[in-house]
Amino acid sequence: MGEILTFTEEHAAGLATLFFRAMRGQTRPPGELLPKYFCEILLSSPWASPEFPSLVYLQDGKIVGSLGVIPRPMEFRGKPITATTTTQFMVDPEYRRGPIATQLLRRHFQGPQEMSWTDGAADEVNGLWSASGGFTAPLYAFNWIRILRPFETARSGLDRGGKAARRFGLVSGLLARPADLLFAKLPFSMLRKPDSPLSSKPVSAEELLECIQEIGWHEPLKPAYSLSSFSWLMSEALKAPAGALRMLTVTNSEGLRCGWCVYYAKRGGAAYVLQIGVRRRDHFKDTLRALLRDAWEQGAACIKGQSIPKYLTCLTEQHCIFRHPTSATLVHSRDSDLANAVRFGDAAITRLDGECWLRFAYEKWD
């Protein structure tokens, strides 16, 4: 008979071993870096609290299941609340037929948080959340992609294929950039360099937070940042090997800040948007175009982002292509009003508030 315990530093090595088994299909020892990172994220973040513990499941003294929990302060209709982002929801392959995953999830849902959520969940996790009282938020599960350089985008796709595809990608890489330069001169707006009447500039985390706090969010459910926690968050996001982290404020010709954006830029590859915010609804199109222009100037082949429900039409008008991945955005809340805000797309939940800035999936952890 197993037991659920609060995650502590003494569990870190066992949790890292479980990570390799459950997430990588490997049996190698974890080394020192991954256990240290688990402690840093789950025990030493600015929001860590014994009220919202991460959980491990022990069977015969061995960690065979886990649910990482990162509390995040938010605001709902002017009232401060706590939302928990779940991460590293894992069960050892030998124990997946049992009730471990369900027991971990239900224990967490009994906590005092007003909302729990996760982004990028697999199908089997989707079923577990639904069976435990959670729900899928389909409006936030759509992803969009905007092609900036079609030949570079195709070549980067080959890099993720098998050996033969990668070899062909190396050869095609010699032709991709010149072909994209040629296509950019054609009179088709989708293929030309994006432009915007607004200007953008890179800023520090402190300047970015000042902009966010000045402009604010329009949704009733929104994140709440302090300077210390936001600086820590951005310093952690900076370490993820997903590309160069770009923090931009966007202004008009009179110097008025109209919006901001945070994304990972990667020359010759895909750029990934973590967050976009705007002062007014009519600022979104030009803020997005300023983001696309910056990504182009950084050499990105394409740029990808999470759907923003109220701007789906605008994203489509800017030649963004939508797809519904197999992963899902999942939510649990005992507050029906709060739950409905997410269901109907009236929540400012972004990848910067989820788990896409975490390094678990990006690193080899050698």
Descriptive overview:
The strands form two sheets. Strands 1, 2, 3, 4, 5, 6, 9 and 15 form an eight-stranded mixed sheet that branches. Strands 8-10-11-12-13-7-14 form a seven-stranded mixed sheet. Residues 164-173 have low confidence and may be disordered. Helices cover 34% and strands 27% of the residues. It starts with a strand and ends in a 23-residue tail after the last helix. The protein folds into two domains: 3-140, Gcn5-related N-acetyltransferase (GNAT) (Aminopeptidase); 143-148 and 194-323, Gcn5-related N-acetyltransferase (GNAT) (Aminopeptidase, 3-Layer(aba) Sandwich). It is of the alpha+beta class. The longest helix has 21 residues, at 163-183.
Question: What's the layout of helices and strands?
Answer:
Layout: E1 3-6, H1 12-23, H2 33-43, E2 55-59, E3 62-76, E4 79-91, H3 100-109, E5 115-121, H4 123-131, E6 135-136, E7 143-147, H5 150-159, H6 163-183, E8 199-202, H7 205-215, E9 221-223, H8 227-239, E10 244-251, E11 257-265, E12 270-278, H9 284-297, E13 302-306, H10 312-317, E14 321-323, E15 328-332, H11 336-343
Parallel strand pairs: 4-5, 12-13
Antiparallel strand pairs: 1-2, 2-3, 3-4, 3-9, 5-15, 6-15, 7-13, 7-14, 8-10, 10-11, 11-12
